[in-house]
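Priority: medium. Attachment 1 of 2:
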């Protein structure tokens, strides 16, 4: 599968001008580093991501546009690889990572992780030089009406190298899986480590059931990062309480067009506007993380619920 994906990249960048130009443009993307209470964040100025960051996801807007992940609406130049019974691996033409994939379901079904974490970890094992990510329907997904995962090159997200050194404690263990949480005051993060697929799925189900849900919503708000290394799955779950921070809607100098999703939660803030890249500070990053994540008190309650349910 990995060789087939590499071949797909080469073919698409040779035959699809839009994708080729956007991947070339990554070499010119500006980045800067900020430190938030000992955690490293990168801020990336990536103008091509304006489409995703400013996406209208209200029911009326979704109803009025064609679904860009449905096969019949894909660009004529876009090709894909089948995965399992229901997914197609596509090259993302608006990349954040050096290699960036979108993996939609072949059916037009809503963005929901319940019952699909097994698919996600299977993809992570098959594509073990990538990190898989899932954005909840109100946590950064620009297509909340069509189920999809994304994948990006390993070694890009700062959390990937930092998490194992900053564990705050163990919550529960289940057979060959363990659930810990990180020592981070502005970003609530749960981490599942498992050498066994079914144990990881069971433990994730316990986490899912313990997360707070809003009345009328079909899924608790969350982002997920998953990767496979050294015979073990790592699943980072970021419980959320808000889709977009106040600065997204503010006017004038207070405005920062940033809609956090899995990549941002993983330590790389994507700013499609140069004005925001220039002015954003560590304090802004901290405020945004605190605003969209569970509070320390809410996060403590979730951890207690998990202990009680397993």
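Attachment 2 of 2:
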């Amino acid at each position: 599968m990995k060789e087939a994906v590499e071949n797909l990249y080469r073919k698409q960048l040779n035959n699809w001008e839009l994708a080729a130009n956007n991947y070339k443009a990554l070499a010119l993307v500006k980045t800067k580093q900020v430190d938030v209470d000992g955690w490293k964040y990168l801020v990336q100025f990536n103008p091509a991501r304006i489409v995703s960051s400013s996406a209208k996801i209200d029911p009326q807007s979704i109803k009025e546009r064609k679904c860009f992940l449905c096969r019949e609406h894909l660009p004529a130049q876009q090709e894909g690889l089948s995965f399992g019974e229901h997914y197609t691996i596509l090259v993302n033409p608006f990349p954040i990572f050096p290699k960036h994939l979108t993996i939609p379901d072949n059916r037009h079904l809503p963005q929901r992780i319940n019952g699909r974490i097994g698919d996600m970890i299977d993809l992570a094992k098959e594509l073990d030089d990538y990190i898989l990510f899932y954005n909840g329907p109100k946590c950064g997904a620009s297509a909340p009406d069509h189920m999809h995962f994304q994948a990006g090159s390993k070694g890009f997200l700062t959390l990937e190298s930092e998490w194992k050194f900053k564990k705050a404690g163990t919550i529960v263990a289940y057979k060959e899986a363990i659930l810990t949480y990180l020592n981070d005051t502005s970003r609530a993060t749960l981490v599942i480590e498992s050498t066994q697929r079914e144990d990881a799925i069971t433990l994730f189900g316990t986490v899912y059931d313990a997360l707070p849900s809003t009345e009328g919503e079909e899924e608790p708000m969350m982002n997920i990062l998953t990767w496979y290394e050294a015979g073990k799955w790592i699943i980072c779950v970021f419980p959320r309480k808000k889709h977009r921070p106040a600065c997204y809607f503010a006017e004038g100098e207070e405005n920062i067009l940033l809609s956090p999703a899995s990549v941002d939660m993983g330590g790389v803030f994507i700013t499609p506007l140069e004005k925001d890249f220039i002015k954003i500070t560590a304090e802004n990053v901290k405020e945004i993380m605190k605003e969209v994540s569970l509070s320390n008190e809410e996060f403590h309650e979730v951890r207690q619920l998990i202990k009680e349910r397993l």
